[in-house]
Amino acid sequence: MDDGVQSPAARDPDVADLDIAHDDPSSTLLDLTSYQLHDLDSVDLPPYLTELDLTSNRLSALDPRIAHLSNLKKLSLRQNLITDAAVESLSTWHAISGLEELVLRDNQLRKIPDVSIFKRILVFDVSFNEITSLHGLCQVSNTLKELYVSKNEVTKIEEIDHFHELQILELGSNKLRVMENLQNLANLQELWLGRNRIKAVNLCGLKCIKKISLQSNRLTSMIGFESCIALEELYLSHNGITKMEGLSSLVNLRVLDVSSNKLTSVDDIQNLTQLEDLWLNDNQIESLEGFAEAVAGSREKLTTIYLENNPCVKLPEYSAILKQIFPNIQQIDSNVFC
């Protein structure tokens, strides 16, 4: 977006040439971030480039010279004016078929572009567009390790069955209602599904996942995480959860965020000996009676706890009680201790 401050390139196109010309001639990275370029006509594209970063410009078309950068591994077109028509040519650019990272985040795409030509792609980012369906992902290479499709209009998880190497899947801020078709993602480490319309947890048998976010959905239950024994971080804030359950097997959990729900007590975490961060703020927990027993496993490890905006924080000795329970506590709500 235009913040009213012109870059040197916007004031004088020749300045862009001068800046680029003074870059290290041996560098294989060309970073043109925030030059406000409408095209690359004034820019030299050396044939040895391995990385081309065109973030935050005003490009509405792809320069055909990019098609000849046979050593290119990373191409970022983040935050431009790229449309579906503008990226159609990508599917014919055989010389750059070795591309490993393609970023089309924050543009004007309405569908998944055809990137089937990239047989070694590892990172594919089409977040912050206007994509309504994941149709087209079936043509993306099974080498993919990171897929980002957040902040779009997607309604269904599909065409991801072949991503056996996928480690990160980001589908936050869409219109998803059901967790499905995840069963083949055996190597998935991180699953981000915040700000959707999901009502129930279904991890389709995934057991190796380490980070899960289901913040700002429509969950009323925590059932569904029991088999995720490798889980280290779980984010469930801003839902309608009424009871903490299904957590006792998650012995590797380090971060648990169940803030802004409808909890009245703390349960099922006494076995979590690795827990470091516990977020319980903005719930309906009335008392700290029995709290020490409920968090017995994490007494030594826990360093951060949030309980603000619960009735129990009005107790006169609220902080003193928590400090007594957790000898190594470093933060209680917004209060940080040296």
Q: How would you describe the overall organization of this protein?
A:
This protein has a 15-stranded mixed beta sheet with strand order 1-2-3-4-5-6-7-8-9-10-11-12-13-14-15, with no helix packed on it. The protein is 7% helix and 13% strand. It has helices spanning 8-11, 13-21, 291-294, 318-325, and strands spanning 29-31, 51-53, 74-76, 101-103, 123-125, 146-148, 168-170, 190-192, 211-213, 233-235, 255-257, 277-279, 304-306, 331-332, 335-336. The longest helix has 9 residues, at 13-21. The relative contact order is 0.06. The radius of gyration is 24 Å and the shape is elongated. The chain has 338 residues and is mostly beta strands. The chain has a domain at 237-338: Ribonuclease Inhibitor (Leucine-rich repeat, LRR (right-handed beta-alpha superhelix)), CATH 3.80.10.10.
Biggest beta sheet attributes: 15 strands, mixed
C-alpha termini separation: 41 Å
CATH fold description of the domain at 237-338: Leucine-rich repeat, LRR (right-handed beta-alpha superhelix)
Radius of gyration: 24 Å
Low-confidence residue ranges? 1-22
Named CATH architecture of the domain at 237-338? Alpha-Beta Horseshoe
Pfam families: LRR_4, LRR_8
Keywords: Leucine-rich repeat, Repeat
GO cellular component, one term: cytoplasm
Protein name: Protein phosphatase 1 regulatory inhibitor subunit PPP1R7-like protein
